[in-house]
Write a structure and sequence with these properties.
four-stranded antiparallel β-sheet, elongated, 10 helices, 271 residues, 4 strands
Amino acid sequence: MKNTLYIIIGSLLFALAVTQLAMPNSIAEGGIVGASLLIYYSTGISPGITTPIIFVALLGVGIRYLPKPMVIKTVFNVALFSFFLWFFEHIWAYPIEDALLAAIFAGVITGIGFGFIYQAGSSVGGTSIIARMLNHQLGWDLTGVTFALDAMVVVAGIFIIGPISTMYTLITLYVGKIVTDFVLGGFDSKKAINIISPKTEEISQRITTELASSATLFYGTGEYSKEERRVLYIIVHTHRLLKLKRVVKETDPDAFIVVHNVKDVSGGFIS
């Protein structure tokens, strides 16, 4: 039930972004939706019609390379998305004077929609079907092939909607990816920190008492000095990173600190 609700919300948001922001301002997309939009700009045929046709054609070729649960969810998602496209097309949307704003907000709404769709284990990309088929037959990289196919759709837009609108499309895709990652990663982002210092015991104690957090201790050997050193590994909320670095520098001004972005964190003890 939860996944179904996510698919409905995601499809609704994506359709709104396409019909109310992308289409009135001649902005395209990647994947089969991008191909459908280019067909619309060329012939006037509704994306609500071409999107399921293209998807069914791809699915007929590559269905055996996809997991059955994913096929079921994606078929439902594409059907729902196509309906929303057809429905919202009849709500007249006017072009925005500043096309850059249209591109940015189309990316924001699309990114939120994709976040919900991906959370449900579904997609509307279409190009992933071809990527999986080529991966199975020729061993090609899934991510690289998907990116190349989406890029081909975007590049084709230069000859249909022109270079300016294609550049706005790239902005939409970039913003959409950032927002999708943000939705999937959660609103409460975290950082992973490695600290190398001879004063790791003092640093660990201050982290426990002042930040109410915890640390994991590793032992590493310097390649140049051949000396064994203690390495602390810590996960903290992003807004507490500056305080953590201040605690470390106060304890050991020469401490070596490496900060990593982490995609997802679950379990353990994180204040």
